[in-house]
Amino acid sequence: MAETKDKAGVPDTLIEPIEMSSLDSSFRDAIHSMPNGEELSACFACSTCTAACPIANQWDHKPHQLIRMIILGMRDEVLSSSEIWECLTCFQCQERCPQNVRVTDIFFDCKNLAAEAGKVPSSIVGLGKELLGKGQLYQVTADWEREDLELEPEVPGLSTDAVKLILKSTRTGKLAGDE
Ligand code: SF4
Ligand code: SF4
User: Fold this and answer.
1) Residue 81: how many CB atoms within 10 A of its CB?
2) pTM (2 decimals)?
3) Mutate to test the pocket of ligand 1, among 39, 40, 64 (most ligand atoms within 8 A of CB)
4) Which of 4, 36, 116, 135 could anchor a disulfide with 105, C-beta 3.0 to 4.6 Å?
5) Mean pLDDT, residues 151-159 taken together
6) Whole-number percent of the chain with pLDDT over 90
């Protein structure tokens, strides 16, 4: 479904035909059999999910197209797409779907399947390493604010040790290459 570019006389927006022989119906069946995929086949491609999505205009494959690609069985394209990892998980698409398709949750399932297939982007693995190492993604650096309020520089009792320990026992630990 890549956009066709640089072809004389062909509009940029023309979509290349899907290679039907490369479709994998077991991918659709796998998603459909998951608790979040029960309503997958009810999608009637209305694009409401895409209209609701705050970042769809940045994506090559919009939410309604990704759902359609799943229904068609485009396993490699979906699991290799950057969009499933860029999703903000704001649930706007899912809340507004008139067919109760669990769009956001299905993208979560796609991420899990992509992880099992070793298709996690390096940027996401990097975030996993940060979490494993520090127990948090963003360190609070506003020590001066605490000082202004005459508080101790360190938050009393704050510890990320438990978070790090838990993460090491999860798939985050494996994906981030924790030994
Ligand atoms: S809003 Fe729901 S029914 Fe409409 S295209 Fe998106 S998933 Fe399909
Ligand atoms: S949950 Fe993801 S796909 Fe759905 S509207 Fe938000 S950013 Fe878009």
Assistant:
1) 21
2) 0.80
3) 64
4) 36
5) 72
6) 56
CA of 93 to the centre of ligand 2 (A): 6
pLDDT of residue 130: 83
φ, ψ of residue 25 to 5 degrees: the values are -65, -20
Instruction: Specify which residues 15 forms β-bridges with.
Output: 3
The set of long-range contacts for 48-52, using a CB threshold of 8 Å and a minimum separation of 24, is: 48/93, 48/96, 48/97, 48/98, 49/93, 49/94, 49/96, 49/97, 49/101, 49/103, 50/93, 51/96, 52/92, 52/93, 52/95, 52/96
CATH 1.10.1060.10 domain locations along the chain: 20-116
Q: How far is CA 33 from CA 38, 39, 77, in A?
A: 7, 10, 20
Helix, strand or coil for residue 15? strand
Among 150, 131, 149, 128, smallest CA distance to 139 is for 131
Cβ–Cβ < 8 Å for 49, 43: no
Span of 1-10, 90-99, 154-163 with lowest mean pLDDT: 1-10
